[in-house]
Amino acid sequence: MAANGIGSFDWDIRRDTLVGDRRACTILGLAGQSFDRTSGSFLALLHPEDAPVVRRRVERAVAELGQCGAYYRTVFPNGELHAVRFRGRVLADAFGRPSRMVGFVWDATVELHKRERADELAVLREERSRFIKEAARALSEAVTVRDVARVFTELPLPGLGPDGLALASLEGGRIALLGSSGYRSTLSDQFDRIPLAPTHPAAEAVRQRAPIFVSSREEYRERYPDAWDWAENSGRSSWAFLPLVASGRPTGVCVVSFDADRELDADERTLLSTLGGLVAQSLARARLHDAEHELAAGLQRVMLPRTVPAVPGVTTAVRYLAAGSGLQIGGDWYDVVPLPGGHVGLVIGDVQGHDVHAAGIMGQLRIALRAYAAEGHPPAAVMARASRFLADLDTDHFATCTYAEVNVDYGVVYAVRAGHLDPVVRRADGTAHPVPVAGGLPLGVAPDEEYRVTRFSLDPGETVLLFTDGLVEARDMDLDTGFGRLCETVSEHLAAVGESPREPLEELADRIASQAADTSEREDDIALLLLRWDGPAGGRAAQQLRRRIGQADLARISELRAELRDALRRWGVPELIDTAELLSSELVTNAIRHTDRDAMFTARLYQESGRARLRVEVEDESDLWPTRRTPGEQASSGRGLMLVEGLADAWGVEPRGSGKRMWFELSS
C-alpha cells in the first residue's frame, strides 16, 4: 500500500464517524485541516457533480451489505482540483445489520491530467478497457440473478451513453424481464412474460448466437416488419440485441437502445459483444447459485432460525457445524427469543437422531418452545410445556435442551436443563468454567416432569456459552476432556470491545468453531450459542424495574423479590432492600390474590437533592379498593396495609381508567 500510495479508511456507520490513515488524509487534502469526520462533511469536499453519485453508491452498498467504488473529484484548500478513487466493503454485525465500511483510497489525479491531455479517442479506449475490467469484476462478485440484473442495468458504458438497458431470460419461449433502466414501468410490464415471436430481432440473435445491431427505425421496419409494433411502442430509434450464451446454450438476451439513430462502430460493437459474454457467464452461475440456495433455504427453514434478533444490552453469536456433507440435516438447534419486560431467552437443544425425521421434529419443537417463552412463562413452565408437547407428538423421539432466561437489566440468568450439558461462562478475568445447572429428564420422556431453575449472575462483559454435545464429545474424546479443551479455548486472550475492528464475540465463536472443525472424524452436529452481557447503558443499571405478574402465579413473587434485591443493590441503595422487598411482596400478593387479572409491578429510583427516593407501583384492573383491617393476634392475614402504612414514607391508591394503582415511597 505504501509503495502504491494507497490509503485506508474505516467508517463507523452507526456513529457516522469516518477515520482514515495519514496517507488517506493526504490524498483527500485533509492534512493539517480541521475535519469533524462525519459523512456529510466528507461529501461537502467533493465536486458538486460527483457527490450525488458517491452518496447513491454508498447508500446502496449499505442497504445490500455489499461493495461499492467510485471515481470523484475533490478541491483542495488551495483550490487545486484532484481526483480520487475509492473502493469499500460494508461489514455486518452479529445480527446482520450494517455496522461499518472499510476500504482503500488512492490518488487518481494523474489519470485526470492524462485524460485532459490525451486524445479523446485514446481516452475513450482506455475507459472502455477499464470498464470491461470493472464490469468483469462486478459481475464476478454478483451472486444472485437479481445481483446480475442490478449490475448490468447500472453499467455506465463509456462513450455510448445508452438511453435504455434491459436484461431478460428465456423461459419456455417467453421473455422474463430480469431488470431494466431507462424504460417506463408500464412499458416494462407490457413486455414482461410475453411470447418471443420468431420474427423478432431478439429471437434472431438467440437463434444465430450472434449480436443484432439496428441503427435506425427505418432499418428496423425494413428488416423486421412483423415486429415493428414492438419497436414503435418502445420510443427508441436504434438497438443492439446481445444474445446470452453459456456452455453453448442460449439463456436470454440483453437489449441496449438509444433515443437517436446510431451506427455503432467496430470498437463499440466489440465492447457490447464482450459485455454480453460476461453477462451470460455471470447469469448462468447466478442461476445455479439461486437453485442451490433455494434448496438449502427450504431445508434451513426447518432446521434453524434465519437470523438472531438484536436485543439491547446483550451481544449474541451463533454457529452451526453439520456432521458431514450432503444436505446437512440434523436435530441440533439454537434460538434467541426476545421476552416481555426486556428479557431475552436462550435455547439450545438436540433431538435424538440424525436424519430428516429428527430435523422435522426439531422444527416443531423449536417453534413450540419459542411460543411458550414469548408468552412470558417462567423457565420451568416453558420446559415442562415443551416436554408435554414433544410427548404428545408420539414420535418415539426425545430431545435434550437447555433454556435460559437472561435479565438484561441486571445480568441475572435463570437456567433450566433437560438432559443437556451445563453451560460454560467466561468471566471478566478471562477464566472459563462450567456452571452447574439443576437437571431434569430429556424432553418427551416424562410429560409430567417438573424442572428446577438455577439462578446465576453475570458481570458486565461476561459471556455464557450454550452448546450441543458434538462440541465436547467424540469417539476419541470423553466429556471431561472435551469440557477441558473448550474451557481452555474460551479462556485464551480475547480483544476487548473496541480494540479490534471485528466484534470480539464473533472472534470467540470462530475460534471455538475452528477447533471443532479441525476435530477428526466428527460424527455429530454442533450448535453453538454465545451471549455476552454488555451491562447497563453508561455502566449503571437502569433506574426502573418493570415486571408483569401472572394471575395467581405466586411463584413469580419470589423471582420478583430477587430481582428487586439485585436492582436496589446495583442502584446503590442497599439500605432500602429489606423494607422494599417486604412491602412489594405484600402489594403484589394482594393484587394477584384478590383480582382475576395480571398485576404490573414498577419500581423507579429518583435522585433529588442528593437523596434517593424509591417509588413502587402495583397496577391491576380491579375496581375494588383495598380496605385497611385490624386483625386479631391469631389472624393469618390482613396486616398488609398496616405494614405499608407503618414502614413507607408515603403511600396511596390512585384510580386508573380501568382498575387502580397502589404505591409507596421510601427515601434513603
TrEMBL record:
Residues 314-533 form the PPM-type phosphatase domain. It comes from the Bacteria. One of its GO terms (molecular function) is kinase activity. It catalyses: O-phospho-L-seryl-[protein] + H2O = L-seryl-[protein] + phosphate. Pfam families: GAF_2, HATPase_c_2, PAS_3, SpoIIE. Its EC number is 3.1.3.16. It is an enzyme of class 3 (hydrolase). Keywords: ATP-binding, Hydrolase, Kinase, Magnesium, Manganese, Metal-binding, Nucleotide-binding, Phosphoprotein, Protein phosphatase, Transferase. Primarily acts as an independent SigF regulator that is sensitive to the osmosensory signal, mediating the cross talk of PknD with the SigF regulon. Possesses both phosphatase and kinase activities. The kinase domain functions as a classic anti-sigma factor-like kinase to phosphorylate the anti-anti-sigma factor domain at the canonical regulatory site, and the phosphatase domain antagonizes this activity. This is protein-serine/threonine phosphatase. It comes from Kitasatospora griseola.
